[in-house]
């Protein structure tokens, strides 16, 4: 099926050689393709190339015919115009002593205001405020510069061509057809009149109007449900081979990612891959070029400053777009892992080179990469854009960009866009910006990559997901219009801040007048309802986190829920389900050896069996993330080691009490110094050791003040390794400390520098099993209390449970515990409950239980495996299914 039927009135005009001017490039491209099909249908083997041009291209072509020896005006590109605007604005701000932080953002708004002035033929007006006064100055200066230099930009071009036609300096065609224009701005209306006075017959051809066979109207809960419904409908239309299917999404830019994800998933369900374009369906709005992986790699490289932060280093090392990215990825990954282990937050280029030269994981390509980067950073002069392009091309060539692997079709298109649009655009800046610094040229490259939209060519035309404006002049076999709510039809008001509101209202500029928006919304909705034989219109009751109602111009339709009308899915596929909650059980030989992980293994088995399996059976962990100063793990380890040495000197509560404060401070300071001297630190970590020394001394003194308040005790052992048999497992454990009181009862302590509570021991689930495990299996004698020794500034204290009150300060007995598990009445009950939970966890480890079943949400909060178990994605899919 064709977008333009064989009896369309435009074909005779094209056959006669008449010029067709279209509203956009999409319509021109489609019309050219359809004309070729039309000629084939007429049994023509050869035909003249049709004269089809989008309106902007027609004006550029007319300008190229106008330019001669008498008219040396140069047409500047959008990037050149932006550079000129930026220069004008910065000069004016400097002259008036004003500092504006977001000049590029201001330039975009100013260029829109300039375009509005040109489209609506506005030269003078009364300003309402400082913004309008500034724009008036800027535009006057901009036009003066263009006049002096002989430049004209694309929005000024229609007026220049209009004048040339009126003066007889530009010959025009005998007849023109204008296609796809819902409305014409005043500048084009005047130009059409000028054409007609010059003898050109101008005909505005309306879009083909079809009498729809069916018009269905659906109301859905939210935008995601609406897109799912539209995708399911589109798939079925394609499977039934109705022809060309269009899904119109008014806010396509905001919903682009959701649209791509939902339609890809839905189309992949089809049992008719020959009928359904699963991977090549056409989304009219492309993504910024900067989001393409190849371009993101180049931009990251170019944006590097004198000091590389870890994120930049990590990205560049893992990037496949440079030499060695595929062939040497293992060495690069190991080098990055070493940086993580060393807690490297940033490196200068020279430091990076030094580390590479002394790393066992270095490669010649990694060293060459760092050397080329160092040479790039050495450019600190201001030179022409042409020189910068030579330097950039040389840098990218030396580092092997865009990678070792051959480029596929999409890759070639991305590379071509970089060369033809980005680098060419930067080179063209030389007309306006004679000299640029490295930061300026990189900034311009980044701006162009963000503003240029990339869309792969050769996409399948059978399904087109497009915005409202892209439908101009086109007809389809089936069409679904999403987002038909009161916020879109009509649109809201949005004034340009650089033009007076009164001027915008007076000239009825877009989004300046409610009556104008209402009229335009009716026009669009009427056209869309007659653009296909099958039409579906929908709206969501919630869009962009706001409640919505149907457009007031569509209330006459019979609205109903999509689910009530839609039959069951005839093409559903029964998926095979595999229960992988169990892995291989531990063998007898494995059970005879100590199991890696110790008490942490049982803790994670209780928290989430999958986490325990991945960490300790497979030995896989998330990579460390560098932190400023010392990592929290390193700081906690230092506290443990200092306290171990302090108590190895004190040995008992009596010695603690007998030491006066100065003597105690000296002891603590000596042990802190001893521990730090025996520890290997990186150069960056050594920079904070002065602060860390004071922190450790202060924290340990604060903790000893808490221990002074205890009843008499002696430290029986500290940090002694033990091999314990727990159920079927043999575990190597190292209790932090075991004390003995005057009555010979044992008190088991575990130092904690993070947050813990007593309920972790006494609640329904034993979240912290290490203390109970030590008490049950690792202590000879009667255990009277287990407690966390919370060593935190301002929060030092004991968090645990005891046989009786006040064995430890503020530690309650079992009977008085407020978080006690039901069925536990006394200390013996608690010990037995601990034993059952610990041995159950040990049995699960031995049996290979590895289900993704976190015992509590907080287990997942800081888990490093969420990307592997995808529990967040599972939760989202479940919620979507429940909503549906």
Outline of this structure?
The chain is an alpha/beta fold and 884 residues long. The model is unreliable at 876-884 (pLDDT under 50).
Describe how the helices and strands are arranged.
Blueprint: H1 10-15, E1 19-22, H2 25-41, E2 52-54, H3 55-66, E3 74-75, H4 78-95, H5 103-119, H6 130-149, E4 151-152, H7 157-166, E5 175-179, H8 186-197, E6 201-205, E7 214-222, H9 223-239, E8 245-248, H10 252-267, E9 281-283, E10 287-288, H11 293-303, E11 307-309, H12 310-318, H13 329-341, E12 346-348, H14 349-357, H15 364-377, H16 385-398, H17 409-428, H18 438-451, E13 453-454, E14 460-466, E15 476-481, H19 501-506, H20 514-529, E16 532-543, E17 546-547, E18 559-561, H21 562-565, H22 588-591, H23 599-607, H24 609-617, H25 632-650, H26 653-658, H27 661-677, H28 683-686, H29 689-707, E19 713-718, E20 722-726, E21 729-733, E22 737-741, E23 746-752, H30 759-762, H31 770-777, E24 783-790, E25 797-802, H32 827-847, H33 857-861, H34 866-869, H35 871-883
Parallel strand pairs: 1-2, 1-5, 3-4, 5-6, 7-16, 7-18, 8-14, 8-15, 9-14, 15-16, 23-24
Antiparallel strand pairs: 10-13, 11-12, 16-17, 19-22, 20-21, 22-23, 24-25
């Amino acid at each position: 099926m064709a977008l333009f039927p064989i009896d369309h009135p435009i074909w005779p005009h094209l056959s006669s050689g008449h010029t067709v001017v279209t509203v956009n490039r999409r319509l021109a491209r489609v019309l050219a393709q359809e004309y070729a099909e039309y000629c084939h249908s007429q049994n023509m083997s050869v035909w003249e190339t049709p004269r089809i041009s989008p309106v902007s291209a027609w004006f550029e072509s007319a300008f190229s015919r106008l330019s001669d020896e008498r008219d040396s005006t140069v047409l500047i590109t959008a990037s050149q115009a932006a550079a000129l605007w930026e220069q004008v604005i910065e000069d004016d701000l400097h002259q008036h002593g004003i500092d504006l932080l977001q000049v590029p953002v201001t330039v975009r708004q100013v260029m829109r205001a300039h375009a509005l002035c040109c489209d609506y033929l506005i030269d003078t007006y009364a300003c309402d405020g400082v913004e309008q006064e500034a724009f008036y100055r800027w535009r006057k200066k901009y036009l003066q510069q263009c006049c002096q230099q002989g430049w004209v930009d694309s929005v000024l071009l229609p007026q220049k061509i209009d004048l040339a036609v009126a003066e007889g300096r530009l010959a025009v065609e005998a007849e023109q057809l204008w296609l796809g224009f819902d409305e014409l701005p005043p500048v084009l209306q005047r130009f059409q009149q000028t054409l007609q006075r010059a003898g050109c017959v101008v005909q505005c051809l309306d879009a083909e109007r079809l009498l729809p066979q069916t018009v269905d109207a659906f109301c859905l809960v939210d935008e995601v449900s609406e897109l799912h419904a539209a995708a399911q409908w589109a798939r079925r239309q394609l499977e039934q081979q109705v022809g060309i299917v269009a899904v119109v999404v008014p806010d396509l830019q905001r919903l682009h990612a959701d649209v791509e994800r939902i339609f890809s998933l839905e189309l992949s369900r089809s049992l008719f891959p020959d009928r359904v374009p699963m991977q090549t369906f056409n989304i009219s709005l492309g993504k910024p070029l900067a989001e393409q992986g190849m371009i993101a790699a180049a931009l990251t490289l170019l944006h590097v400053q004198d000091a590389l932060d870890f994120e930049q280093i990590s990205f560049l090392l893992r990037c496949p777009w440079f030499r060695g990215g595929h062939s040497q990825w293992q060495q690069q990954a190991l080098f990055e892992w070493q940086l993580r282990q060393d807690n490297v937050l940033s490196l200068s280029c020279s430091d990076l080179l030094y580390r590479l030269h002394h790393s066992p994981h270095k490669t010649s390509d990694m060293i060459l990469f760092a050397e080329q980067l160092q040479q790039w950073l050495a450019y600190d002069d201001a030179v022409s854009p042409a020189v910068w392009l030579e330097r950039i091309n040389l840098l990218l060539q030396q580092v092997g960009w865009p990678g070792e692997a051959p480029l596929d079709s999409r890759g070639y298109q991305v590379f071509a866009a970089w060369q033809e649009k980005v680098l060419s655009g930067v080179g063209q800046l030389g007309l306006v910006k004679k000299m640029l610094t490295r930061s300026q040229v990189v900034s311009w490259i980044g701006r162009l990559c963000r503003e240029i939209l990339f869309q792969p060519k050769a996409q399948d035309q059978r399904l087109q997901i497009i915005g409202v404006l892209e439908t101009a002049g086109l007809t389809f076999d089936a069409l679904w219009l999403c987002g038909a709510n009161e916020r879109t039809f009509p649109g809201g008001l949005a004034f340009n801040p650089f033009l007076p509101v009164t001027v915008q209202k007076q000239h009825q500029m877009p989004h300046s007048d409610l009556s104008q928006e209402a009229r335009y919304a009716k026009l669009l909705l009427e056209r869309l309802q007659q653009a296909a034989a099958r039409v579906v219109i929908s709206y969501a009751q919630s869009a962009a986190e706001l409640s919505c109602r149907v457009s007031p111009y569509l209330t006459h339709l019979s609205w109903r829920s999509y689910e009530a009308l839609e039959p069951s899915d005839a093409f559903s596929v029964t998926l095979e389900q595999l229960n992988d909650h169990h892995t291989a059980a531990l063998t007898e030989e494995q059970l005879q050896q100590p199991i890696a992980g110790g008490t942490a293994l049982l803790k994670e088995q209780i928290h989430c069996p999958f986490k325990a399996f991945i960490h300790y059976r497979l030995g896989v962990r998330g990579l460390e993330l560098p932190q400023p100063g010392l990592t929290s793990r390193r700081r906690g380890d230092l506290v443990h080691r200092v306290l171990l040495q302090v108590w190895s000197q004190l040995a008992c509560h009596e010695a603690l009490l007998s030491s006066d404060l100065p003597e105690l401070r000296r002891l603590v300071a000596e042990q802190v110094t001893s521990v730090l001297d025996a520890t290997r630190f990186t150069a960056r970590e050594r920079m904070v050791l002065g602060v860390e020394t004071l922190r450790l001394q202060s924290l340990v003194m604060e903790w000893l003040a808490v221990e002074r308040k205890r009843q008499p005790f002696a430290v029986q052992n500290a940090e002694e390794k033990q091999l314990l048999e727990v159920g079927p497992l043999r575990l190597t454990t190292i209790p932090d400390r075991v004390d003995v009181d005057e009555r010979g009862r044992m008190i088991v302590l575990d130092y904690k520098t993070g947050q813990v509570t007593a309920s972790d021991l006494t609640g329904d689930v034993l979240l912290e099993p290490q203390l109970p495990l030590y008490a049950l299996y690792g202590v000879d004698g009667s255990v009277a209390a287990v407690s966390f020794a919370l060593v935190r500034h301002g929060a030092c204290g004991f968090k645990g449970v005891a046989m009786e009150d006040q064995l430890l300060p503020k530690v309650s007995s079992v009977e008085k515990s407020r978080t006690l598990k039901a069925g536990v009445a006394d200390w013996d009950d608690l010990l037995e409950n601990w034993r059952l939970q610990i041995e159950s966890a040990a049995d699960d480890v031995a049996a290979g239980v590895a289900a993704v079943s976190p015992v509590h949400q907080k287990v997942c909060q800081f888990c490093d495996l969420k990307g592997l178990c995808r529990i967040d994605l599972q939760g989202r899919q479940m919620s979507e299914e429940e909503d549906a």
